[in-house]
Each structure stands twice: as structure tokens, then as C-alpha cells.
């Protein structure tokens, strides 16, 4: 029985709770093995034999004051339940809800009666083994094989033939997969960096889960490293469990106007904090643009392959896409948009979420219009400050409601008011631009994001199981929003930059 277990539950007197729970380096860790059932300690998660329950409990106790207090007051980890909450089908990650069952060595008394018998958290594992599956969802198996062959041939031409062939044979990894692996591991690092940056702010400007521990991916897998570190190459995040009292708004339902305004308000607050000199210095040093993250060579090959398969979609999507679709993979167009925003409209780049849609927003169950958390910061990159708002509007809002809100100018007015108010609160000056300039910047973001909405159609078609009861409804929703988005983007390009539209049509004419 638990009350017969004799354990010294005192925390070392020299233990100082770390304020850097998201930082692996320069952190003093204490061992909490004695607080866990010995039979449980060496059990591991899924196929990751280095992610043991003992490892998780130790990192959790070092990163969570609340959990540490449970142990200090007689808590003993008797059992852990691991529940796969995304059925192994996450984009690049495996998500598990861990429920820790706790028994108190001295029974329930005055000290322990207010402590819980269960403590839950989310374990996020960067699933490097999913990368080839993800790429197949984007391109299809046959087209992916062509992309990999073409990319390898390109490397052979650009480098020493023998050297490249030896490299491919020795690593047994196609260069496309290796380059993709580097980009995807960078995505996990981005998320860890963002949470660390927010952890350094006493009152974060927007709701995010509490982060107990992060581990970056090891860039080069090496057997000798495994022997020394006893850790695998996968990246890990331990975070607060919000599943019990929150939900995700279904894609097909879309966000309502109140929810949209809630998100915009928090984004404005985030952008104000990111303007603080010390924080600005951090994100400018640690983050890159989306183009830099993917790498030019891979981006060009992937972009061309994606455009090729989009030509197989319905004409009412293909025809407008033909006119502007390949602009997004042109470095000169990306550069032009950045310079236009900064030089013509006075709106500088900022750190963005990069993947803001319904799946990455948690809402409270008891108040569906109140935002509980922004999650999944893997695509946090430097770019147009309207990137997240434009993606939110195109991907998660019904087109008629989106057009109504855009016409009324409510979102930009709210954003600018909240941004300036927060800047002043933080001791900084208001921005020099107004609604008119911001509208142009929003328009340019719409162009890029609309192209993205079309490009993701094949991914969702392959990535969503056909036995999903909502498959047809989801795909219809995605295609309808993409069709409206690309047509609106075409009108915007005609208004904002007709010279680029003419250049694109001339090139398409030559190709035909």
C-alpha cells in the first residue's frame, strides 16, 4: 500500500526554481527519481526508447513549480497514462496527453487535502519519421519521386558528380529529404525559441500554454552521441494541458466576428511587445524569413511541383491562379513586397506566427468567444505584420463575412488602435503609419496568403482520411475559400501592382 512506502520527500535545500524552463543550456537540474514508482521509471513513450517516464518526471519537476510542490508535500508518481490525442497524424509532431496519477505517502492530511490526485500535461515530440509522409501528402508519391530525382540531378550538375553520388549512397537519404529535414527541425527550434522569448516576459502579451521544458532536435544523428547523451535526436516540448476546458472551432464552421476581433487584438499587443528594443534584438537575431527557412533550392523545386498539380484542379481556381500563382516563388517579387511595405508605406517587418488558422487557436468551453491560447509556433518567421491576420481571414472565415469585415475596415482599425495603445503603455511612440498605409500592406499579404490557400488543397485532400465523416464538407469548404481568395487576390494585384501581373502573363504566354 502507498502509505507503507518510506520516502524522503524533501526537496534539496539548495534547489532554486529556474525561470528558464525553456532553456536546456546552463540549467541546474535536480534528480527526482525517488518520487516515481521504480517499475514505471524506465517505461518509454511509443518507439522513442529514450523518452522514459523517469525522464519526463524529472524535466517536469525541474520546470513546473506547481508539480514540484506536489512532490515536496508527499506526492509520489504511481502511474502515468499516455493518450495519443492526434492519432499519430500531426503535421510534424506526435501529441500525447500524459495523466500522472499521484498518491501521497503520508495519506491525505491538512497539507495534502488541497493537492490534486492527478496532474496532466501535453508531450509534443518532433516526429522526424513523418517527414516523407508529409511530403507525399503535398505532392503525391509519384510526383515526390520525380522532385527528389530532379533535385539530386541538379546537385550533381552544381557539384562534383562523384562526391554527390557518394554522399547520397553513404547517407541513404535523398538530398531532398535531408534538406527538408533541416527545414522541419528548424521549425521545432522556432517554436522552442518563441516560447523561451515569451517566458522571459513577466506578463506575456497574448495567451499561450505554460511551457515546462523544451529540447531541440539534434541536427546530426550519431550513434556515439547516443551513447554519451543517452538522448535521441527528436525534439521535445512539455507544456500545460488545456484540453479539459478548451476546444478548437471546426474549420467548416469558421470564426465569428467577435472571435476575429479577439485574435486581432492579441496580435496587436504581441507586435507592440516585439517592438521593445531588447525583445526586437532577440527575434531579429534568432528568427529568419519563411523563404530563408525553407532554402531557395528546395523552395523552387517544391513550388514548381505544387503549381504543376494545382493545374489539375477545377477551372474556376486554375484560371486566376495561372495569372499570379508562381509569383510567390519568385525571390524578386518577395523582395519587392518587403521593400514596398517598408519604403512606400513605412510598415516594417515583424515576427509572425506564420500558420494562424482554426487548428492553432484554443477557445474556452464556457466562453467560446474568449481565446485561451495561441499554439503551434513552428512557423514563427519574420515577415509582413499582416501575414497572420490575412491568413486567419482567408483560411478560417466564411468568404461573405470576410468581405463584409474587410469592407468596413474594422480589423485594421482595431489593430492600429490596440497597437498604438500598447506601444504607449510600454513607453514607446505610436507608429508613423495610418489606416491607408496599413490597408496596402494588408492587401499585399492577401496576395501571398491566397496563393498559399490554393497550394494547400492537394495537401488536405491527401492528408485527410476519406473515411472522415466530414471529408467532403471540409474539402468543399477549403476549395470555396481558396477560390474566393485567389479571385480577390487577383483583383488586388491588378490594383496594387499591375506591372507584376503583366510580367507574369508575358512569361506564361512564352511558356505556352
Shape: globular
CATH class of the largest domain: Alpha Beta
CATH fold topology of the largest domain: Aminoglycoside 3'-phosphotransferase, Chain: A, domain 2
**Are there runs of 5+ residues with pLDDT below 50, and where?**
1-20, 167-172
Q: Which CATH-level-2 architecture of the largest domain? A: Alpha-Beta Complex
Number of helices: 21
Q: Give, in spatial order, the strands making up the sheet with the most strands.
A: 3-4-5-7-6
Number of structural units classed as domains: 2
**Structural class computed from helices and strand pairing:** alpha+beta
End-to-end CA span: 79 Å
Helix content: 40-55%
**Got a strand count?**
12
Average pLDDT taken over every residue: 85
Protein architecture, described:
By secondary structure, the chain is an alpha+beta fold. The protein folds into two domains: 124 residues, no CATH class; 270 residues, Aminoglycoside 3'-phosphotransferase, Chain: A, domain 2, CATH 3.90.1200. It has 21 helices and twelve strands. The strands form four sheets. Strands 3-4-5-7-6 form a five-stranded antiparallel beta sheet, sandwiched between helices. Strands 8-10-11 form a three-stranded antiparallel beta sheet. Helix 15 packs across helix 18. The N terminus is likely disordered. This is CHK kinase-like domain-containing protein. Pfam families: DUF1679.
